[in-house]
Amino acid sequence: MSTAKAIAIIAGAGPGTGASVAARFAKLYTVVLLARSASTLSSAVQRITQSGGEALAIPTDVSDQKSVHEAFQKIKESYPGQAVRVGVYNVAGRPKMQSFLEMTAGEWAAGFEIPK
Asked: Where do the domains of the chain lie?
């Protein structure tokens, strides 16, 4: 039986909420951080490792299927046999700033689209 920690994948691990969520999960899991910005990921990994956690940064564009596939291949190669137990999808859309009760279905859905 393996004593390795299970993996938590945090997509959208940029500054703010994503980095905070990643730091919290790093207390119990090996965390894999996905975001477009390598510099953002680098600082998050540094904070996690300085706190005694283990983190892997993989620059990834979650709106691109090939990029996501490559990220999961890297996870499998980096942590063979370790189980992924948590997935957090914290990718920011651009929701319209108004009451959701006043939004059309199209405006609501647009808030979940991943900006380029």
From this structure: 7-110
Q: Which two tokens stand for residue 15?
A: 């500054």
> How many residues can be counted in the chain?
116
Interacting residues of 36 by C-beta distance below 8 A, sequence separation 6+? 14, 59, 60, 61
Of residues 58, 59, 48, the one with CA closest to residue 26: 48
Q: How many CB atoms lie within 10 A of CB 1?
A: 3
Structure tokens at 104: 């059309």
7-110: CATH superfamily: NAD(P)-binding Rossmann-like Domain (3.40.50.720)
pLDDT bin (cut points 50, 70, 90) of residue 14 is confident
| Cα–Cα distance for residue pair 13/35, rounded to 1 Å | 6
User: What pLDDT is attached to residue 55?
Assistant: 97
CA atoms lying within 13 Å on the CB side of residue 111: 11
pTM (predicted TM-score): 0.81
